[in-house]
């Protein structure tokens, strides 16, 4: 979208995706993460808390109610990821899983590409360790 289109956009990306589809994306995402050897071991076996946090975070991040902030406080995402060695390859693997999850859900192409662009930027910003 260009600036004029953003200005006149009637709805947030969150509204255009909808809570139900966002949940579907998050629920599709973590099994893919657990099947990706580069990053699987970083995550706990029981992913329900992780999924709840991610769904709450993405809700606010995409312009919906600030659910993560309300429950957990400021996300400070880079800080909360400091204990995980996120190399460029791991970030790429994480984002590939996220992209596959998005493409597994029935959503318009424009919405998908806006969502992926927003999350790609954040995933790249999460790199905190050079390639080992
Ligand atoms: C780039 C690669 C990334 C890796 C390898 C990664 C890995 C992780 C891991 C291992 C956890 C802890 C899971 C747990 O113990 O419950 C976590 C938590 C989390 N991640 Fe990521 N992450 C990445 C990128 C992102 C991005 C791009 C976002 C947001 C769009 C994100 C959002 C979150 C959130 C909200 C949490 C929960 C934080 C908390 O309250 O503890 N992560 N991530």
Task: Give a summary of the structure in a few sentences.
The protein is an all-alpha fold. It is built from eight helices and no strands.
Notes on the structure:
- It is a single chain.
- By secondary structure, this protein is mostly helical.
- The protein has a single domain, classed as Orthogonal Bundle (Globin-like).
- Helix 3 packs across helix 4, helix 3 packs across helix 7 and helix 7 runs antiparallel to helix 8.
- 15% of the residues are buried.
- Bound molecules: protoporphyrin IX containing FE.
- The site of protoporphyrin IX containing FE has 22 residues, from helix 4, helix 6, helix 7 and helix 8.
Any idea what the CATH superfamily is called?
Globins
- Write down how many β-strands occur, each being a DSSP E stretch of 2 or more residues: 0
CATH topology: Globin-like
Radius of gyration: 15 Å
Order of helices and strands: HHHHHHHH
- Largest beta sheet, briefly? none
SS element count, helices:
8
Given helix and strand content, the structural type is mainly alpha
């Amino acid at each position: 979208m260009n600036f004029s289109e953003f200005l006149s956009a009637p709805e947030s990306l969150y509204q255009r995706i909808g809570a139900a589809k966002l949940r579907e994306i998050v629920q599709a995402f973590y099994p893919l993460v657990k099947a990706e050897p580069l990053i699987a071991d970083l995550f706990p076996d029981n992913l329900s808390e992780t999924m709840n946090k991610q769904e709450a975070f993405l809700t606010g991040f995409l312009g919906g109610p600030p659910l993560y902030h309300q429950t957990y406080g400021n996300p400070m995402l880079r800080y909360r990821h400091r204990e995980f060695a996120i190399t460029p390859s791991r970030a790429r693997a994480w984002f590939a899983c996220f992209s596959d999850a998005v493409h597994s859900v029935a959503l318009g192409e424009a919405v998908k590409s806006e969502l992926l662009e927003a999350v790609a930027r954040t995933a790249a910003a999460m790199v905190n360790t050079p390639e080992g």
